[in-house]
Design a protein that fits this description.
It is a single chain. By secondary structure, the protein is an alpha/beta fold. It folds into 3 domains: 100 residues, Fervidobacterium nodosum Rt17-B1 like (Heat Shock Protein 90, 2-Layer Sandwich); 90 residues, Alpha-Beta Complex (Actin, Chain A, domain 4), CATH 3.90.640.20; 199 residues, TIM Barrel (Alpha-Beta Barrel), CATH 3.20.20.370. Helix 3 crosses helix 8 and helix 11 crosses helix 12. It is elongated, with a radius of gyration of 33 Å.
């Protein structure tokens, strides 16, 4: 009769065996070293007849965030397992779950992006993303608002809407404007996936947020130059572009404080002959004026506009193509305004903050979209109709009053002549100032929700 032989294990052998057993139990788990905030990563892989899953678990040194992330992943995993168990009874098609993550540095913060892809039947995988942004030192969670200047989410949402539609138009894809509006509204949850680089603000929109699932995840870039005054300065790396232009001349306004003020304003330019004729004569009347220019003409007549700006005249926008804004969709309104502001900034080095809509056609919604000060007029010379310097002069003199804004067009020589004739007759009684000078002399703070016809 054979007797069984007992094998006594040494202490070392016991340790080795224990390690082997643990390895068998956790056969689907592997560990990878990460950075100081992500000490260890666990990979879980499981294959069954009715499903497969692969999950990457980040191990984060900050306990609070670590628990939040694990709870989120486990919630997705349990939901998947429950669903796949139910589907096992009715289909032989296996389900699949993949959960991965990426980590990036964002100034003094870490950004952790959890990517969930699950297939439980149907035409496609369901994609979900969840991002966590937290301070490396304190572990405090932050949102996009922590990177913005105060109360700037509304302005950011307008830019997001504009660049989202620009994405679709450049890709020659159909889009639903209302869907995009809803997905880019000024709500924190609409901006839960973002990154800031030297190129600008990157926004990620998940399927169904601004378009159908077939559009996939949509990434847009808002250029850094658009973000001045919206993103906090410390998160921008803007390098000042060197522009060959002189600083605008500033006048001592004290001498005009006891005089009545008139603001001559000129639309539809710049031009060559008429604009320069006006500029040639401003010093004669100790005058400054304002130009509301068309973006489409800025580069063609860049010398005239540079000269006007360097002399200390106010430069504002009259949109790019002089279209009736009432007839345009929101994207096209913003395009008319943004394109003009960009071309002016490219030439003069500043972004105008004053807008005169073509035909004066503006409303509350257009003001919200533009985020600019609306400057209209209360003396319409109808210079475009008469093209008669004497009639234009008479019209100005007849209606002149302190704080008046006079509408003219510097594409007509007769308009310039009429303005100069009026200055000759009114020079003893009035000072001729730019819109910016008028605002300063009147001690005003403008409101972007209002229209200014006079001051």
């Amino acid at each position: 009769m054979k007797r069984s032989k007992k094998i006594r294990l040494t202490s070392t052998a016991k340790i080795i065996l224990s390690v082997i057993i643990i390895g068998i139990v956790l056969c689907t788990l592997t560990f990878v070293h990460k950075d100081k905030n992500f000490e260890t990563e666990i990979h879980e892989i499981e294959e069954k007849d009715n499903y497969t899953l692969k999950i990457d678990y980040p191990e984060i040194t900050n306990q609070k965030i670590n628990e939040e992330v694990l709870n989120y992943i486990n919630e997705k995993k349990e939901l998947f397992l429950d669903t796949s168990k139910e589907l096992k009874e009715i289909t032989s098609t296996p389900c699949d779950l993949s959960i991965t993550y990426t980590v990036e540095d964002l100034f003094d913060f870490k950004a952790l992006h959890i990517n969930v892809n699950s297939y439980t039947g149907g035409a496609h995988y369901i994609k979900e993303n969840k991002s966590y942004y937290f301070n490396e030192k304190t572990g405090e969670e932050v949102t996009i608002e922590d990177f913005l200047e105060e109360n700037k989410l509304e302005e950011l949402s307008k830019l997001a809407y504009f660049y989202a539609i620009q994405y679709y138009t450049t890709q020659n894809k159909e889009y639903d404007e209302e869907w995009i509006k809803e997905g880019t509204k000024a709500k924190i949850e609409n901006y839960s996936h973002f990154s800031i680089t030297k190129d600008g603000l990157i926004l990620l929109f998940m399927p169904y947020q601004i378009g159908p699932y077939s559009d996939g995840e949509i990434t847009i870039l808002i250029p850094e130059k658009e973000l001045k005054g919206i993103i906090k300065k410390e998160y921008l790396s803007l390098e000042e572009e060197v522009i060959n232009i002189k600083e605008p001349e500033k006048r001592d306004l004290e001498k005009y404080k006891d005089k009545k003020l008139l603001a001559f304003t000129f639309d539809d330019g710049p031009s060559d002959g008429p604009t320069n004729k006006l500029l040639d004569n401003l010093e004669k009347y100790d005058a400054r004026v304002s130009f509301f220019v068309l973006g489409s003409r800025v580069n063609t007549y860049s010398k005239s506009l540079k000269r006007a700006y360097e002399m200390g005249n106010t430069i504002g926008s009259h949109t790019y193509s002089h279209l009736n804004l009432f007839q345009l969709k929101d994207y096209d309104i913003m395009k008319e305004i943004n394109n003009t502001n960009e071309v002016i900034e490219g030439l003069l080095g500043f972004r105008p903050d004053k807008l005169r809509a073509p035909y004066g056609n503006t409303n509350t919604h257009i003001k919200e979209l533009s985020n600019m000060y609306t400057i209209l007029w209360d003396i319409d010379t109808e210079d475009w109709k008469y093209k008669d310097a004497e009639k234009i002069k008479d019209n100005i003199i007849k209606h002149a009053h302190d704080g008046a804004i006079i509408l003219l067009h510097d594409i007509y020589t007769t308009s310039v002549d009429g303005a100069l004739l009026a200055m000759e007759e009114l020079k003893e009684e009035y000072a001729f100032v730019s819109i910016d000078e008028m605002i300063e002399l009147k001690g005003l703070t403008l409101d972007k929700t209002k229209s200014y016809f006079s001051f």
